[in-house]
């Protein structure tokens, strides 16, 4: 009986030992996998640290550019996105100065300011104003909604441009350029030959110029991403003109128009007569003077003036005698 029980418990014990061995093997494999995963997770950090150190050495030895993406991402990428927001808004309002004052107040209360401002009048005497508002980007939507409630919206356009990559690139280039300028200055301090000093001065001037250009670009991006731009155009609502255009012309309108045309015609006739009158008077005087001179300068004929005088002194014929009287 003892032999049979030992024979039965032997295979069972062997199975339990095999299961325990398999469990231990599985745990070891899992631990090895975890260790290998941890090694892999730690390896990129070491690899990233090595290029960073290499970049630091390169920049100290004469490298002016850094192309380490992980380093740039870790130090230059901001928490949020950089977006340039612009809008153009055209409104019709009853009172342009009042609406402009409201727009100024909205911009200043939001922490912004009013930039360029232009005011003109059209042919009908209506006032038109164009103003550029700069407001913080976090108050952009609120200010735009406030402006839309000032009057009737005629046109509205909005634009958003994501320049996050450009901002990150410029920041990285600024850091690299500053390191390059510092290196050249250090070399100038260590230079002993005049030729080396002259050459390094030219190189330093070039790199400082490039750095100034990058700083100006960085400042421009910061200004455009921190402050949104709203171009506001205000014009008076032509209420009376719109009413006149909408109504059909009647008899009174036609009579008024005809009378205005008649008066205008008389006015122009009077103007033309007033313009021509001096010329007519001058022409009449010249004509009268010419006729007078023509009469006085005409030569006299000899028979015309002597005929009346001789007509009165003609000889009288003697009376005729009768023949019968003579014979007696």
Automatic annotation (TrEMBL):
Biased composition (Polar residues): 65-78
Leader sequence residues: 1-29
InterPro entries, per database record: DUF4349
Keyword line: Membrane, Signal, Transmembrane, Transmembrane helix
Domain DUF4349: 82-290
Entry keyword Nucleotide-binding: no
Descriptive protein name: DUF4349 domain-containing protein
Species name: Streptomyces mirabilis
Lineage of the species this protein comes from: Bacteria, Bacillati, Actinomycetota, Actinomycetes, Kitasatosporales
